[in-house]
Amino acid sequence: MIPRLLLPLLLLLALGVAASQEAPRYLDPDAPVAERVADLLARMTLEEKVGQMTQIDLARLMGSGEWDRGPLDPLWLERILGDAHVGSLLSGGGAAPVPNEPAAWKETIDALQRYAIRTSRLGIPILYGVDAVHGHNNVLGATIYPHGIGLAATFDPDLVRAIGRAVGEDVAATGVTWNFAPVADLGRDPRWGRFYETFGESPAVAAAMVAAFVEGQASVGRVASTLKHFVAYGQAESGNDRAPADLSGRSLRGIHLPPFAAGVHAGARTVMIASGSVNGVPVHASRYLLTDVLREELGFDGVASSDWGDVDKLVTVHRVAPDLDAAVAMAVNAGVDVVMVPHDAEGFTSALLRQVRAGEVSEARIDEAAGRVLALKFALGLFERPYVDTPAAAAVVETDRSLARRAATESLTLLENRGGALPITGARRVLVTGPGASDVAMQMGGWTIRWQGLEPGGDEPPAVTVLEGLRAGAPEGTRVEHRTPHDPGLLDVAATADAVVVVLGEAPYAEGAGDSDDLAIPEDDAQLVARLEDALEGRDAPLVTVLMAGRPLLLPAALRRASDALVMAYLPGTEAGTALADVLYGRVAPSGRLPFAWPASVGGLPITADEPPAEAEHEPLYPFGHGLSYGRFRTSELAAERDGDEVRLSVMVENAGDKSAEHVVLAHVRFPIVRILTPERLPVGFARVALDPGESRRVDVRVPLERLALVPGDVRAGDDLAVLPGTYRFEVGGESTEVSLDACSIRSRDGSVACR
Ligand code: BGC
Ligand code: BGC
């Protein structure tokens, strides 16, 4: 007879033996993800599941307060990863380990991972997120690429795919598994402080770039992409960040959803929700947008995450919920799977637990949300390989300067070039001046080391400034001199220089802090150009103005008159100087094109190329797609035919100049007469081609039928995108041709097309 006390012990032993013989199903790497998720969920407590839905900022785990930057604090580790079972962490803008070095990133994230795996009952790894929106930009030493607006100006999705891969490799090397990029919002209002993070105004361009970035980053295998911020974030009427947007179902589906649909179809595993509201409903509280549209219509099956503190804001800003408990239930029931809290883990988890116990949120919904997070962890291989094996994170992070250089070079957009002022050739003395000539903060923009960009006197990442680049890259016999705008000798040097390069720009900013009411160029900058113009009066020395800015600033007429050449450099990043030297000295012909229409006044907004016709039309200062070259290109023999789900355009392009050059071929469409407003000419497709002097090549431009789709119907239109039957006129260069299309409907779930 076995003593009663021994019985349970023996039972446990037997179970233990059984378990050791057969590892739990969720740990079997060969089991299908859905089975692993179901098995793991069945073993988890409600508290553990709610923890998976919670995301906390690194700063909360360091030092004593919210923003102290110190070593990881064991007390907070226990509270957050232990007591609250938190399933993901992030580095918000500027939240970095101390010291901010690649190796410290890897060690810190590995340490957090180790803690999470060892203390969680079931050994569940964490996800770690960052905003690597233009390189691994929180990390000192990482290569910084141009911001999205500059990448869009390259019209080069292959380049963006390569950058997606390079950024994915960089973040993966430091243990990061979740990148809050790419930005799939459109930049349709330059007053918005996040305009520069976007791929510009065009759904066609943004969709191609978003898909390319997602594909590149996915090829690394260990990093999830985030499409942010779902949806219509950039469309606030005020032009402000996180402000209300009012838009029709027609523009929701025709303009704002396509880049998200493209990202979903390219395999993005997460989506971040926009902080604003659409048609009177905060997106975080919209079941329609987060479930009906995102899940059912677009077919997204990954993780939907809140943005920073946005559940609280349902109470404090939007005032659609009386208290945090109600807000939590509202957001989770609408479809938010993970909440970026980001500080008070216990506050959030206890509110959600209360709401589940009160029956306001179903356990099935918790299983669904936590299950999606677990599915992501399985898919990324985190249960098998939770730590980074790269021994030298440092070496991996500082790479790809050549890719950054290529990106910056391809983005540079030549707006004006009077009398062939550029390239600068045969100059003995070149004067470089202006506030941007050697300002690393300016060439990087926001989201670089710190949230709002580099701080005066703070850490400075490696970079080639414009001055350094123009010096190092100067041709034989050219001497570069630098004077600050306030140097008393400035005008004397200008008076004898053979060329003057003045670099203007915007100080860095991020989010609402960057909202602008006037898009103004600082008065001092305009005056600087005027003074230089006077000094150059009557001489044959060109004045070249370079603008490093995240958006089209209003260019005073005097500045435009004074500048013989005008170059838009966007926010070019690490290799600004090298890229500008290549283009200004003529080693590379500029090939960037504006991914937005440049407004002539704030009152003239909106000015996008797809604005429908109106009696009084505002003209842009420079249209969408504007960009000059040193070369001359001729297009001929445009042909177009419907080819399955696309219209295939093909055109001969000839380099009729005497220099090798790259050229962006842009295709526009004119719609048939239909019963709703259509833009006069809509940009729908593009291709980049490199040609030697005298070379001709046939270039294909593929236009998915999706890009021609509209939401038809009267004011209370339905939801469905359709290609309306009729004759479509396609234009490339000076050529045009027509294609007749039947009525087609578009299935947003997979972008497939059915035509009658
Ligand atoms: C921004 C997001 C970002 C998040 C985390 C938010 O304020 O809107 O774009 O991913 O912070 O840093
Ligand atoms: C964080 C950012 C975040 C922002 C939200 C900042 O303090 O560092 O990551 O995007 O707050 O407003």
Describe what you observe in this structure.
It is a single chain. The protein is of the alpha/beta class. Helices cover 32% and strands 18% of the residues. The strands form six sheets. An eight-stranded parallel beta sheet has the order 9-6-5-4-3-2-1-10. The protein has a six-stranded mixed beta sheet with strand order 11-16-15-14-12-13, with helices on both faces. Helix 5 (102-119) links the parallel strand 2 and strand 3 (127-130). Helix 12 crosses helix 13 (345-357) and helix 16 (401-411) packs across helix 22 (576-584). It is globular and about 80 Å long. The termini are far apart. The structure holds beta-D-glucopyranose (2 copies). One beta-D-glucopyranose is lined by residues 92-94, 308, 451, 511.
Set out the fold topology:
Elements: H1 6-21, H2 33-43, H3 46-52, E1 54-57, H4 74-83, E2 88-90, H5 102-119, E3 127-130, H6 148-154, H7 157-173, E4 178-179, H8 203-218, E5 224-230, H9 249-265, E6 270-273, E7 277-278, E8 281-282, H10 287-297, E9 303-305, H11 313-316, H12 324-334, E10 339-340, H13 345-357, H14 363-379, H15 393-397, H16 401-411, E11 413-417, E12 429-433, H17 440-444, H18 466-472, E13 479-482, H19 490-496, E14 499-505, H20 523-536, E15 543-548, H21 557-562, E16 565-568, H22 576-584, E17 633-643, E18 646-655, E19 661-670, E20 682-691, E21 696-704, E22 722-723, E23 726-732, E24 735-741, E25 744-747, E26 752-755
Parallel strand pairs: 1-2, 1-10, 2-3, 3-4, 4-5, 5-6, 6-9, 12-13, 12-14, 14-15, 15-16
Antiparallel strand pairs: 7-8, 11-16, 17-18, 18-21, 19-20, 19-23, 22-25, 23-24, 25-26
The structure holds beta-D-glucopyranose (BGC) (2 copies).
